[in-house]
Amino acid sequence: MKHWTIEQVAWDRFDPTKVDAGVIPLVKAAAMVERNGDDYAAYLKSVFVGDPDFAAAADNWAEEENQHGDALGRWATLADPTFDYPAAFARYRAGFKIDITADASVRGSRTGELIARCMVETGTSSYYTALGEASEEPVLKEICRLIAADEYRHFKLFYDHMKRYLQRENLSFPRRLRVAMGRIGETEDDELAFAYHCANEPESLAYDHGRCSAAYMGRSMSYYRFRHIERGMGMIFKSIGLEPRGRMSAIAARASWKLLEWKRDRFLAQAA
Q1: Average per-residue pLDDT in the chain?
Q2: Fewer beta carbons within 10 Å, N or C terminal of the chain?
Q3: Angle at which helices 173-185 and 226-240 cross, to 10°
Q4: What pLDDT score was predicted for residue 88?
């Protein structure tokens, strides 16, 4: 069941004078990825065949993800009336494919798959929190707040199912850590870079991963503050079985913040 609907968003409060031009390309790209929930749900249900409880949860999750994409797409169209959201998404879906018939997780186990999903929800919850706090445009701020809350609930959903499967599969800590770190590293793969391309660049321009990744990552990382990384690190630690608040988490958060700052500057320089 959805916790909110697009109709409940106060669209009449949209204020074009408060729109940050730099955020528009990011919102357009995010709309592509969020709206692709159906394919990811099909993949998850194929991996978790025989688990009707998880299948129902995956369907509800996809419905909320799709709504995120539609809300972001609608806002992007208000901010840039030339943006054709349906056409951009059709282009994205045609060019970015995942195996929706996989009979096993690419993470090696169902526990691993759920840890990977926790990493995704950690990232999105942190990202939309950062984006919403940085935005002065009231409608985008509201949308980001609603999406961030959904993503945190999604984290809890996947975390609870992960604990259930961990009891069966007894995945070792090193393997859990490897899955988590591997999925975090995938944030720079084609999913977001190609979404940026489809949402912001003309079809006549050939897709280039390096160019699009730098443009997206450099801008998106600019909205993070240390508190967002600190909170996210706690969620990561919880997912892999470590104490979410403590000395190790604090050290990891500081190191991650330094790494983000370095990557942000590198991507911005590359995009320039």
Answers
A1: 95
A2: N
A3: 140
A4: 97
Task: Give the architecture-level CATH label for domain 20-271.
Answer: Orthogonal Bundle (1.10)
**Rg, the chain, Cα only:** 18
State the alpha helices, DSSP H only, in the chain. 24-34, 37-47, 52-79, 85-95, 110-134, 138-169, 173-185, 190-200, 209-221, 226-240, 247-271
3-state SS of 66-123 is: HHHHHHHHHHHHHHCCCCCHHHHHHHHHHHCCCCCCCCCCCCCCHHHHHHHHHHHHHH
133-174 pLDDT, tens per residue? 999 999 999 999 999 999 999 999 999 999 999 999 999 999
Residue appearing with tokens 């958060």:
253
Please, are residues 5 and 171 in contact by the beta-carbon 8 Å criterion? no
Structure tokens at 184: 């975090």
Report the distance separating Cα 48 and Cα 270, nearest Å. Answer: 41
**pLDDT(106) > 70:** yes
Q: 63-94 b/e with 16+ CB inside 10 Å = b?
A: ebbbbbbbbbbbbbbbbeeebebeebbebbee
First to last CA, the chain: 44
Q: What is the pLDDT of residues 36-85, one digit of tens each?
A: 999 999 999 999 999 999 999 999 999 999 999 999 999 999 999 999 99
pLDDT recorded at residue 185: 84
Question: Which residue type is seen at 124?
Answer: T
How confident is the model at residue 226, as a pLDDT?
A: 98
